[in-house]
Amino acid sequence: MKITINGKTYDEERALYALSDAEVVDCSFMGPADGESAMKESRDIAVKNCRFELRYPLWHSHKFTLSDSSMSETCRAPLWYSTDGIINGTEINGVKCLRECQDITLKNCRAVSPEFGWRCDRLNVTDCEIESEYPFFESRNMTVHNLTLKGKYSFQYVENAEIYDSHFQTKDSFWHAKNITVENSVINGEYFGWYSENLTLRNCKISGTQPFCYCKKLTLVDCTLEGCDLAFEYSDVQADIIGGIDSVKNPMSGKITADSIGAIIRGREVYPCDCEIEIRK
């Protein structure tokens, strides 16, 4: 790094605009001037142990690291249109963090941010806790390890994602998602996976009413379903379930195998439904 900026406080507009080849350490972005876009259009910067309270600090930033820092609720939309970044050990509380970013890695971060991670490409999320009403909307090419997520409408319209060892408390998740693999994870929430295509779950614990309706190429291997009623309506499914299912309603095609099924509901279907259902003996 050619430049080191240490222990400064900035509140003016575009305080470090187009900063390049620099290290920013122990700095604060706050104050009465209430300026926006502190490090917009930055290149090749390392930001460490900094505090952000002003809006839009890292827009159009490229080749950056952000570590051991904090972003308050007033730090709105902190990272948009940025690429090739690593965010590590950082607490994020501003709304709309990460939008239309590419090649971003998050490690050991905690985020409380409505509309987190929208329309991003090539996200890598590891050992993070995220609370967001609409996380990861329309993002693609994601890899997720050990994510604890509290959300509502999570992973909607996501494409090409691999998720491992994670725990989700969410509703209406993975709607319209395509090419998703989830392994060794826990998903609690109603209406899981509707309208998805090529969604595969292995060794997962799933709970909540009416999961997996209108799915195409749905696969479940060695999964458990708890409190899952009216499952698989009008879905093309290959499911091998450990334990029981509360009820299955008008699955369209494929095969469902389980140890028990409380009720198999057929009739009044509006599409041809010939899915095979097998109860283990």
Note down, in words, how this protein is organized.
The protein contains no helices and 28 strands. The protein is mainly beta and 281 residues long. The strands form 3 sheets. An 8-stranded parallel beta barrel has the order 16-17-19-21-23-22-20-18. The chain is elongated. The N and C termini lie far apart (67 Å). The relative contact order is 0.06.
Show the helix and strand layout.
Elements lengths: L2 E4 L2 E2 L9 E6 L2 E2 L13 E6 L2 E2 L5 E2 L2 E6 L2 E2 L7 E2 L2 E6 L2 E2 L9 E6 L2 E3 L8 E12 L7 E14 L5 E6 L2 E5 L6 E6 L2 E3 L8 E6 L2 E3 L10 E9 L9 E6 L2 E6 L3 E6 L1 E6 L10 E4 L2
Parallel strand pairs: 1-3, 2-4, 3-5, 4-6, 5-8, 6-9, 7-10, 8-11, 9-12, 11-13, 12-14, 13-15, 14-15, 15-16, 16-17, 16-18, 17-19, 18-20, 19-21, 20-22, 21-23, 22-23, 23-24, 24-26, 25-27, 26-28
Identify low-pLDDT runs: none
Instruction: Give the N-to-C terminal Cα separation.
Output: 67 Å
Mean pLDDT: 97
Strand order in space, largest sheet: 16-17-19-21-23-22-20-18
Radius of gyration: 22 Å
Alpha plus pi helix count: 0
Shape: elongated
| SSE pattern, N- to C-terminal | EEEEEEEEEEEEEEEEEEEEEEEEEEEE
What is the multimeric organization of the chains shown?
single chain
Give the biggest beta sheet.
8 strands, parallel, barrel
Q: What is the structural class?
A: mainly beta
Beta-sheet strand percentage?
over 45%
The helix content is: under 10%
Name the descriptors.
about 280 residues; mainly beta; 8-stranded parallel beta barrel; about 0% helix
What does this entry show, briefly?
The N and C termini lie far apart (67 Å). It is built from no helices and 28 strands. The strands form three sheets. It has an eight-stranded parallel beta barrel.
